[in-house]
Amino acid sequence: ETGVTQTPRHLVMGMTNKKSLKCEQHLGHNAMYWYKQSAKKPLELMFVYNFKEQTENNSVPSRFSPECPNSSHLFLHLHTLQPEDSALYLCASSQDIPGGAETQYFGPGTRLLVL
Amino acid sequence: GQNIDQPTEMTATEGAIVQINCTYQTSGFNGLFWYQQHAGEAPTFLSYNVLDGLEEKGRFSSFLSRSKGYSYLLLKELQMKDSASYLCAVRDSNYQLIWGAGTKLIIKP
């Protein structure tokens, strides 16, 4: 596998379910990101992990819970979601350097539908 | 507030040239990115501009004017496979990426 992979690619869940999204990067990067992409809206940054430490949490509801066990893997745990959480969830990675991060590389995303 | 503006949708003809504009108002500037995203797929990196001027990469070119808060992506010799959304993003003074909503480009034969 190369680049950034995400599983599952599609997910349908009820509001009472618990599920997890997985992301893996094979680029040797040290920073990973979760984004939410809704139709005709800009990408919304949810979480940033740098060297496995969470450095950003952009006021994301607690029903979304990230986990980064190492610099290559990132999870997004979901529970008691709302229908408005239906969207494409994108994972990205980059190499953080002094003074800023390099280009972000994205996975194909998980298309989530909450019923 | 911070804002990135780009047209919602554009239509062009196969073989022609199209220019997709992006204007931005951000707190600081540390570079501008263009990404291509086909429906249901990952955004893929196209170009990066941090200095004023034109960067050319094959059929695609990207231009930046920092004084005007303006960039454009120029696509030449359009092909059907260029039908996609094109995302503009600016890195602000905190090195956070601020994203536009994307421009959906439709190529007609």
Please provide a brief summary of the model.
The complex is a heterodimer of chains A (115) and B (109). Chain A is mostly beta strands and 115 residues long. Helix content of chain A is 0%, strand content 59%.
Please provide a written account of the structure:
The complex is a heterodimer of chains A (115) and B (109). Chain A has 115 residues and is an all-beta fold. In chain A, 0% of the residues lie in helices and 59% in strands. In chain A, the strands form 3 sheets. In chain A, strands 2, 4, 5, 6, 9, 12 and 13 form a 7-stranded mixed β-sheet that branches. A 4-stranded antiparallel β-sheet of chain A has the order 1-3-8-7, with no helix packed on it. In chain A, β5 and β6 form a beta hairpin. Chain B is built from no helices and 11 strands. Chain B is globular. Chains A and B meet through β11 and β12 of A and β5, β9 and β10 of B.
Biggest sheet architecture of chain B: 6 strands, mixed
Helix content of chain A: under 10%
Measured distance between first and last alpha carbons of chain A: 32 Å
Largest sheet of chain A: 7 strands, mixed
Structural class of chain B: mainly beta
**How many helical elements of chain B?**
0
Helix count from the secondary structure assignment of chain A: 0
* Rounded mean pLDDT score of chain A: 91
Overall mean pLDDT of chain B stands at 95
How many strand segments of chain A? 13
Q: Using a beta-carbon cutoff below 8 angstroms, give the protein chain pair with the largest interface and the number of residues from each chain.
A: A-B, 19 and 23 residues
Structural class of chain A: mainly beta
What share of residues are in beta strands of chain A? over 45%
| Global Rg of chain B | 13 Å
Q: Give the ordered list of helices and strands of chain A.
A: EEEEEEEEEEEEE
- Shape by Cα distribution of chain B: globular
